[in-house]
Amino acid sequence: LWFLSLPATADTAPKPTTLTQQAKEVAALLDGTMETTAQALINPKAPSVQITTCRVQVETIAKTEPTIYLYQEQALTKNLGKPYRQRFLAIAPDLATQTVQSISYKPSNPAQWIGLCNQPLSQRTLSTSDLGNLVCIVFLKKTAIGYFGNTPPEGCPANVRGAVRITNQIELTPQGMNTWDRGFDATGKQVWGAQSDAYQFRRKE
């Protein structure tokens, strides 16, 4: 999954330490609770959804590794106890592309982790085998207001509600996150997801 940008030169390419700091910034911007409630109030067709994200500890990973691990669950605000999407995220600097990569994993036993963010950090510990299957990678580039990332035109393989591939664009800022998440069937027809407007997640007060 590649973010399209001009090639970095020796003078403009972020230094490794800068990319490590950017990875920390991305993780911090994702951490917490965001909702589309305000958007849903204005647009009845927009779902009211909550995303909850928190730091987790992977016990078999060296503490010096720059990767930051997060747990994320997404649910309708009227049914928070039954998330319809759960992921573990690995946030890390990517020197090859000079971006921050966000690798998402689908846990093999999602029910085991429901409500994990309600636990103290000391109890949010898992092993590498708990991460599950790699689903997708998004590469994020720093902008004037936050970070922007996307999937390639062909998207990521999927088997979700009739879609065989998904694409996404993400704008991440201190105020929240805009996403253009779309699913396509085998004929290339969009079967679900954002049309012209993004899903507008805003930080919950």
State the low-pLDDT regions, or none. 1-10
Distance between the termini: 33 Å
Q: How is the main sheet built?
A: 10 strands, antiparallel, barrel
Mass-distribution shape:
globular
Q: Which sequence of strands runs across the widest sheet? A: 1-2-4-5-6-8-9-12-13-16
> Treating each run of at least 4 consecutive H or I residues as one helix, how many helices?
2
What series of H and E elements makes up the topology?
Answer: HEHEEEEEEEEEEEEEEE
Which secondary-structure class do the elements indicate?
mainly beta
Proportion of residues in extended strands: 35-45%
Radius of gyration (Å): 17 Å
Overall pLDDT confidence: 86
Helix content: 10-25%
Number of strands: 16
Structural features, described:
The chain is mainly β. It has two helices and 16 strands. The strands form three sheets. It has a ten-stranded antiparallel barrel. The chain has a four-stranded antiparallel beta sheet with strand order 10-11-14-15, with no helix packed on it. A two-stranded parallel sheet has the order 3-7. The protein is globular.
